[in-house]
Each structure stands twice: as structure tokens, then as C-alpha cells.
Specification:
The structure is a homodimer of 301-residue chains.
Chain A: E1 2-9, E2 23-28, E3 31-35, H1 41-47, E4 56-59, H2 65-68, H3 71-80, E5 87-91, H4 95-101, H5 103-106, E6 112-116, E7 120-124, E8 128-134, E9 142-148, H6 157-162, H7 169-175, E10 180-181, E11 187-188, E12 201-205, H8 213-219, E13 224-228, H9 236-241, H10 247-257, E14 261-265, H11 275-282, E15 288-290, E16 296-300
Parallel strand pairs in A: 3-4, 4-5, 5-6, 12-13, 13-14, 14-15
Antiparallel strand pairs in A: 1-2, 1-16, 2-3, 7-8, 8-9, 9-12, 10-11
Helix pairs in contact in A: 8-10, 10-11
């Protein structure tokens, strides 16, 4: 399975000539997961070579304009392009009202399912699992952990037979990760009859937040943590007052969560040169880089 | 006086990697007039080198999403940039509701004056005069004629004296373009005591419309007519059904109005190569070109 993570917009609240407003695209075997949808996201998608007509789910971190104002225009273009697939949108309370109140302008001609969600397990299918965590921002912000291609280990029939488990429904329960109880009262856990599980690829996106332990929790061992770093530490007072992170804050999260790679995004327009952010983070966490629009991270699962 | 006309977005209803959604900027000695404000316009302005904090008036042709969805994000950025100047927005009935219903998202911190207007004289000051004409689209669409730097001729005191007009309030009336009545009953028209008037620069923008005589009227002798040409004539049935123009329609308007230059815009995303549009129009009107994002037209008044 091929997974691509494309930074569509790496700006903070105000775009710059180089950085569009926040959005990150994850392509999983041609299906699209969009994390936030700032103004201009539809065009960034086109420039990056992704169609608006594919299967797609949008996860919104919070209801500040720079993270959602790309939705109405995207819906209008999808309609003009005769999109067929329904579109699923997930976001905090209030996302429904925002989307529905602009329906008269964007006139969507396909099904839209809007889900108001909070923390915990948000979505799960055979390929993808999405977990949300409430971060710490001036507006309710959900950080997302997306695990792709994780699976239980292969079922080992010989081990099941050794344990005296009769072939049939009990095997099915164990294969799907459930414990069972044998007639003799013994509990068999699935890991006793399954091979090595596949961890899949884990990608975490913070949205807007100040330093937040909950993001450490959902980022444990992530392959990629995309964390906001609106400011450098010379503006840490302002960052914390406005409930944003510094590059140092983001690096601490990456270190504590033992992630493989950290990408800093939501860069304030004041930083024409982002060295100060990168160097500050690197003192704490080595494998860090600054998000740039259209930078792509490839994974094989 | 220096006047620059910058195409910020030349796309039709759907953006392309090359064309942003509709917007045209006119800079008059540093003040800005924006015609339409499709999604992404604020960033196009930045790329073109124009600040969001300058004196600015926005004129909206109609309430289709591709012409207005850049407004909420622009208002948010203006607030974050601590804009001081009030912002004037003009557009057809419904523009107020659209702007106000997104205030909770974009939280403007400066004064916004929204004017719902129709055809006729819309705005006028010493430098700029804006006239609107109802065009012919599926949604009420106002085409705009903007005349910049026009002035009455210089007042000629010797002519006034010759006609026996006493120095005083009557001179003032004539200077400002009003006719007067002398004691002997004779009517004096201002042109009898004024030198050659300055025509200024006239720029006309159609918005979305099928072929419409009213646009001929407001475009008479214009220096620049920016007219929509969503399709070429091979799709004239579709164009007319959807109340859009072909390149040929736009060229006919330019010819009848005897404009100096025609620029075709609102180009459908189907035309990767725009030669077909340009050639079709040139058969009717020689001085035509296709709008491209960031193309600039300079005038001295």
C-alpha cells in the first residue's frame, strides 16, 4: 500500500506568497484524507495533481477561518465537476452550522455527511484508523492520529490446535482480535494464536495548540508528527498567550513521544527565514524539518 | 496619476493550476479597487505585491461562490494584520447576508460598510466614478464601468465675463458643471465657460453574462474592456443556456462599443490552450488578448 503525505498549506493564520493556508493531504492507495481545509486548498490539490472527485474524507481540527474557509469553494467545484462519491467531513461542534449556512452559495449536488466529533476513536475501517485528542487552543481543537495499514498478526492454526481450541467460530473471534474462554475456563488472548502484528504507518497532526501532553499520548512512536510551531521561543510569551506552540514546544512533544520525524508547520508570516525555528527544534529533536507547500513524504505499508 | 489594472484571477467557475478564481485589482495612486473576490484572492494580492491594509473598495458582480468566497478569509487576514481603514463593499442584494453570516468565523476588527446596489451611478468622488449595468446571467449580475481621473475643463474667467456673468456663486456653479440662468433669462451651459474636459481612463468589467446590449452602452469608448468568455463558439449553445458569453460574443461587444482593448477572462478550465478563444475574437475585434493571472495593464491619467 502506498501512502503519501503532501503539505498543501504550511502558513499560520495569514497566507504568504510562499505558503498557503493550512491543509495536509494524505493519499492512501488513491483515496484522500484531508486534514484541515484553509482557503485555496482546492487549487493546491490541483497543483499537487489530486482530483477533487476521488473518495475523500476531511478532518477539521478547529473552526478558525484559516483552517476551514476552503471548504465552501471546494464543495462548489466538486459540484461543477459532477462529483459522485459522497464526501465525509469530521470536525468539532459547530462544523455543521458553518458548512450548512454556506450551502446556498456552494450548492453541493452530491451527498455530504458532516460528523461533529470529539476525542477518542473517530473513524476506523480495514485500512485506516483515526483517533482524536483534545488539544489546548483558544477554540476547541482536535489533534488527529491516523494509523494506516495496521493489522493483527497472521492466525496460526497450529498454535490454536495446541491450545485445544476447536476449529470454528472461536477461531474467527481470535482472528479478529477478541479473547475467548475455553470450556475448561481458560481465557485465550488473541496474541497467543497470532503472529507478529503489523503496526502500519502512524501520522499525527496537531492543528493549533500550545504544548499539550495529550498530543504526546496520541503521537507515541509515530512515523510522522506534523506539529504547529507558529513562533520561535523569542516569542514564547505571545505563543502561550495565544495558545500556540513554539518550535521548542513541538520538539519536546516529538522527543517525549519518540516519533521518527517531526515536521513544523503553521509558520507565522513573520518568519521569511525559518532557520531560527528549525535550529531551535533541532537542539531537542534531531530529525526535524520545516513544512513547505507541496513537500511530500512517502511511505510503503 | 498612475493606474494599474492587475488580473488576479482569470479562471471560470473552477480554478486551475494556472488560473485562480475571478478577481481584478485596480490600483489608483495606491488606493485599491477590487472587482470580485474569488477564493484565494488575498494571496494573489500578496503575490502581486499589494497590501491588504490599504484604502480599498470591493465591487462584487454577483453572488456565485467563485466570485465571492475570497471575502471571509480576506476579512480575517485584514483583522490579523490590524487593518485600520474601513472597507467598503458593493454588490447586489444578498451580499450583506453572505458577509454578515460569516462574521463569526472571520471576526473583522475594523469597520465594514456593505452597500447593496443595482444599476446606475454607484460611487463617485473627485478621482473615480463607478457606474453599474444589469447584465444577463443566471444570477443578478452587475457589470461595472470605472472611470478614473475624468474632469471638467478648466474654468475660463474671460469667457464668463464676456457672457456677463458676475464673479461669485454663479461661477462656482458653472465650475462644478451646472447650468445657470442669468437675470436676462439666458441659460448658460458649463461647456460655454469651460475648456476641454479630460475623459480620464475608462475600464469596464462584465462579470458573468451572456451577450448583453447594456454592456455595450457602459463600455462606449472604454480604454479597457475585461469581458467574460467562458467558452468558444463551438459551445455557444451551452454558453447561452448557462448565460455565459463566447469569445465571439465578447468581441462583438468590444467592436460595437469601440473600446481600445479587449481582455477575455473567466476562461473555462477545459481550455488548456486558449488560442481558439483568441483567434475567434480577433476575427471580429483586433486588439484582444486572453487574461492571465498577474498580467498588468498600466495607464497614466
Amino acid at each position: 500500500m502506498s501512502v503519501k503525505v503532501v503539505i498543501l498549506g504550511s502558513a499560520g493564520g495569514i497566507p504568504t506568497p510562499e505558503r498557503n493556508l493550512p491543509s495536509i493531504l494524505i493519499s492512501v492507495d488513491g483515496e484522500i484524507i484531508l486534514l484541515d481545509c484553509g482557503e485555496g486548498t482546492q487549487r493546491q490539490m490541483m497543483i499537487a495533481g489530486y482530483s477533487l472527485c476521488k473518495k475523500m474524507k476531511i478532518f477539521i481540527t478547529h473552526l478558525h477561518g484559516d483552517h476551514i474557509l476552503g471548504i465552501p469553494g471546494m464543495l462548489q467545484s466538486m459540484s461543477l465537476l459532477n462529483r459522485v462519491h459522497p464526501l465525509e467531513i469530521y470536525g468539532p461542534k459547530g462544523i455543521k452550522e458553518f458548512i450548512y449556512k454556506n450551502f446556498d452559495i456552494c450548492k453541493p449536488s452530491f451527498d455530504i455527511i458532516v460528523n461533529e466529533i470529539s476525542e477518542g476513536e473517530i473513524f476506523s475501517n480495514k485500512k485506516i484508523k483515526v483517533i482524536g485528542a483534545l488539544a489546548d487552543h483558544s477554540e476547541e481543537n482536535i489533534a488527529y492520529s491516523i494509523t494506516i495499514g495496521a493489522s493483527l498478526g497472521k492466525f496460526l492454526p497450529e498454535k490454536a490446535r495446541e491450545l485445544g481450541i476447536p476449529e470454528g467460530p472461536l477461531w474467527g473471534l481470535l482472528k479478529s482480535g477478541h479473547s475467548i474462554k475455553l470450556e475448561n475456563g481458560r481465557i485465550v488472548k488473541p496474541e497467543e494464536v497470532l503472529g507478529e502484528p503489523k503496526p502500519g504507518i502512524k501520522i499525527v497532526y496537531s492543528g493549533d495548540t500550545k504544548y499539550c501532553e495529550k498530543i504526546v499520548e496520541i503521537s507515541k512512536e509515530a512515523d510522522l508528527l506534523i506539529h504547529e510551531a507558529t513562533f520561535a521561543s523569542d516569542l514564547s510569551d505571545r505563543a502561550h498567550e495565544e495558545k500556540h506552540s513554539t518550535a521548542e514546544d513541538a520538539a519536546k512533544i516529538a522527543k517525549l513521544a519518540n516519533v521518527k520525524k517531526l515536521v513544523l508547520t503553521h509558520i507565522s508570516s513573520r518568519y521569511k527565514d525559518t532557520k531560527i525555528l528549525e535550529e531551535e527544534a533541532r537542539k531537542i529533536f534531531e530529525n526535524v524539518e520545516i513544512a513547505e507547500d507541496f513537500k511530500t513524504y512517502d511511505f510503503k505499508v
